[in-house]
# Entry
Amino acid sequence: MLAPPFVEWLMGLPPGWVTAEHLNLPRTAQLRALGNGVMPQQAAHALRLLLDDLTRLRLGLRAYRD
# Structure
């Protein structure tokens, strides 16, 4: 059986991000929230790629104008 704290750890989230007792979420709701979430590392990588593309685009436009 899949344990929500293990999934939190796999996703790189801090302990209790979804599994904290004060949230009163049942196991199925915890797994659903984790399954629908985005890994912070994945989001950071996507942002880096987008920023690199934006930088290349802006540098290309400057070179075209000069």
Summary: The helical segments are 4-10, 27-35, 40-65. Residues 38 and 61 are 33 Å apart (CA to CA). The first helix runs from residue 4 to 10. The mean pLDDT is 90.
